[in-house]
């Protein structure tokens, strides 16, 4: 199989265009020194970049900064939404529009590096098709292959080098030493002369002063910082928050399956929560069973050296538990009876039993989901996070033994998996396990998990269960991870967001197609803590990151699911039979565009453009020398309009490529505008502005000129299946008006509307149209909400006519405020249903039915 990439995802294009627009007005000429070095062109003035930045931030609803924070720019994209694809395509756009050629992708670890190199490999064909067979080179920095440094500095083509931070952050690194193979030069000096553009992947891991100094040594033209969890923001350009991704259906939904023990105060349960230093004294926070007037409760107590836990808890179960030592370096507490407990570890809480249950439930979830998803061509993967490597890699390790036992037990209840061999279905990847014993095929496991994603997603590859620890924290994810089991023996370094980030990406099928709008696009987290605790910790992470600006998406309770069943003989229901007969017919569409009118309207809007001249700025800066080097003091500036003659590019070809219109049509438009002279003020801005005007007008004309024709094909009743849903999203069908025994609703507004339909005597039946029922439009598929059978009656109560209605519900104050894309799709749907003779309307009031 091959991964397929979509080039027209709106949010990705927004992220790309936001960065590219930072440099509007940029000179496109490279500086080159023959046979020596090819240099990225200098960027426009900081004042112009700040002006562009403020405009972009305003458009993206980001608080504008008072001043430019250096030449660093932050792009925030939630895990699983294609961050690597976005920055690779941004590189190609920056090259195409401005001629930038030297790029270094800086990564914090080998795991991230492998993920980036993998993406570079599998996107090469896609990008060549997208960018006219563009020529570019990519490779990882290798201190044993310094000829690549020479190639990077001298090549006249687009060069992309991937480096780990470790390769440049020590003075002993080869890159910082004089080298005979480079005519005595330091490799880093050859790089820095090119003024490379740095792409920082996961920059929150590069925030130490040492890391900042190392990055500065590369003499970057500017830095683009991409992450889902920035530590600091520098000139924030674009933000796709977890809530944005969740609400737009760009990631899987999340559910939590918690495995916990009911309160048991009969044991000497202890959990070490934290170890701190307070006024030069070491203290530990322990969770214990404490006796109070109302009985025993789980409470947190703070202890220091010499404290008697029996007295602190007033619980005799802790006799002889006297703190004999606290070690902050090894993060452990020692008691007089010989017990040693590490931070995050617990004793006396049936830990192994809980882990066993977690493993069992994960395997059951795995088999259940695989049964559901196999018909869609989707292979299910399950990921286990553990902290103690020996528990899996050792032959007698508890997790390995338990997994084998539980797998062989659980598979007996799933007839499709009885023949599976447990030795073939699981593998582990641990970055440090070469020092451990028991893992014989480590290279095979590494290649499969870290490099061969396509092979791992194939049904022909038996591996389905992956065991790892924080080595897979960043730089690795897989679209088909549907279950994550957290078997944490000690405190995990992973945050909740990082844990779920390994599995939130939308899945792909055996053809490499991304699968959207699937009811079972759900990531199940099998956790060893209560559902409410897990949710509160995840919400706290969102709050710490975003404050009160957004509401965090609430994970669903895995135990609160039910199966909605189709009613027997539902196909024979005369109301449904007639409704389906009318609405299930399919159509094809054709678009007729009045080219003459399109040209006229484009010309009219282009004539209102105002393009500012490029100005020459003179800055006066005072330089002074001190022990720290050169200090600068800004004195003042002057500017005047440039009178240079710009080299005008082939604007007809450029605009045609942007808009996908013919060159003749673009020529017709430009030949009729009366402000064509503006191109001499700022060619790039003029081309960009004209292209945007034409694209918006074209969308409008596509929709207005659409014509649907009924065809022989139709949606089959057999596509209706029993569906699984969450009780929070269901209202019961008490009046027998639906084909299921309940109605699934996606929001409170839909629940209210469904209840009105359920309670209205004139509504004979209704259905929430499934995701697979859609209308094709030139701008994407459209799935309407409701199909309704309505009974018109006269004043005697006698039935006059049955109405067959399709309704879209949009719970906004004014339907005119819908996003243009939504309005365009609804307009197309209106034409489709008009062709079928179906009454279709969009309503924003729950009482509007007829």
Automatic annotation (TrEMBL):
Q: Which UniProt keywords apply?
A: Hydrolase
What domain of life is recorded for the organism? Archaea
This chain belongs to which protein, by name? Type III restriction-modification system restriction subunit
* Domain Helicase ATP-binding: from-to ranges: 64-248
Question: What are this entry's molecular-function GO terms?
Answer: ATP binding; DNA binding; nucleic acid conformation isomerase activity; type III site-specific deoxyribonuclease activity
Provide the E.C. number(s) assigned to this enzyme.
Answer: 3.1.21.5
Q: Does the keyword Hydrolase apply?
A: yes
Question: InterPro entries per the record?
Answer: Helicase/UvrB_N, Helicase_ATP-bd, P-loop_NTPase, RE_endonuc_C
Q: What class of enzyme is it?
A: hydrolase
Classification of source organism = Archaea, Methanobacteriati, Methanobacteriota, Methanomada group, Methanococci
Instruction: Check the record and name the Pfam families matching this protein.
Output: RE_endonuc, ResIII
